[in-house]
Amino acid sequence: MSYAKFTEISGINSGSLSRILQGSRPISVKQLELITGALGLAEDALFGSYVEECFAFFASMRRIRPFIIKCAVLDRLDCIERIVLRLLDNLSYVPALFDVAEELFASKHHQAAALLYDNVSKAEKFQHSERLAFCRYRLFLVELGTDLESNYRAAMVFEDYVNRLHEADQLEALKRLIDVLVTVHKWKRVDELAAEMLRISQIQYDLQAVGGSEKQPERPIYFYILYAWLVRSAVCEEYKDYPGALKYVSLYAEAEWIREKDQSAARYKKQFSEWAIANGYLYRVMSGDAQAIDEYADFVADHPEEIFIALSQIVQAANQFGYDIDRILERFSDYFPFKEMAGEQGQYNVSVISEKSAQFLSDLGVYTFKKNQGNAINLILEGLDFSVNINSVRNVITCMTLFEQYRDYADQEAKKKFKKLASEVHRINAKKNVVPLSFV
């Protein structure tokens, strides 16, 4: 291909192309794209060579930033890593790399962002800076997924950094930590974090009234006050302290102290008021008040997003107090297995619902056993399968224990399925270098 033909096809003017070929001018990312297209190559074919080009003259973030973003779009993390390692020989690039990481995170290129956050945090590991803490927070968020034990490990790594964050960021970070710890039933720590969230949010809300900080949290500050009370009521519920739970319910039931009068405030007040009513019925049910079951069911029937949560709690109460809830299960049979339903403030936390779903299946198996042993065994196996998939150790142990308890009622097909699932549990445990459970 002639020089003139290449300039025509690429769209690069002859003067610029000449200086590029002579090595007297750096190549921009846009020019790289034009050259690649003119040569008929894959979009990232020259990326490996361009990494060196980024440092051929001087390291300019004006050129490097768009290249990192392009690498993220095309999943060339190898090129990003090479660039970042070279740049961090000079720590003055740390702030710029952090800004690019934030840009990638906002555009949902999470793995590329994580690579930058990780390297920035390593560069600042002796600084004890707010930026270091924020990098660890972002890495924690990126690591969250469907594996509950992995989420818990990520939470434990991040927890040491949470109090180094700006107060506005601490509030959402505490909420995220609480949501993870709830799924693994670390209730003592959940209560401690909820108390800290309440302390910070009340201080910030008071400061906001007289000006406060320019930086605002992800949600309105009053939300975190309400959420802290909600969480602390849930902790009391787990400890069967229903009077204590009702004390917190009364706090988030009426939120007339909220100064804001906009639509968002009205929605939050309505949502927490509805949760207060639902939880009032729930605590009556869990205290042994059978009459409250139908009242609870009637209430959630008008709030479909609450039905699955209510069902899971009603089944637990039925197992504890011997309630007959066949009519409730029939009434809401379309709502299990769980189907995602959005409420006023969006969907429930996915991990929390996943853990609830696993527990619901085993609880329903226990309830069903008295009337239909075969169906009960199938529900327990379904719960075990689901628990293995989300790596919920607590529910895996529960389901395996129940199966052993009911083994005499299982047919050969069920025993075969259990053995297969038990092997998978052993495999997972072996990967974690822990002693496997002795269920075969």
From TrEMBL:
Residues 8-46 form the HTH cro/C1-type domain. InterPro entries: Cro/C1-type_HTH (IPR001387). This is Transcriptional regulator.
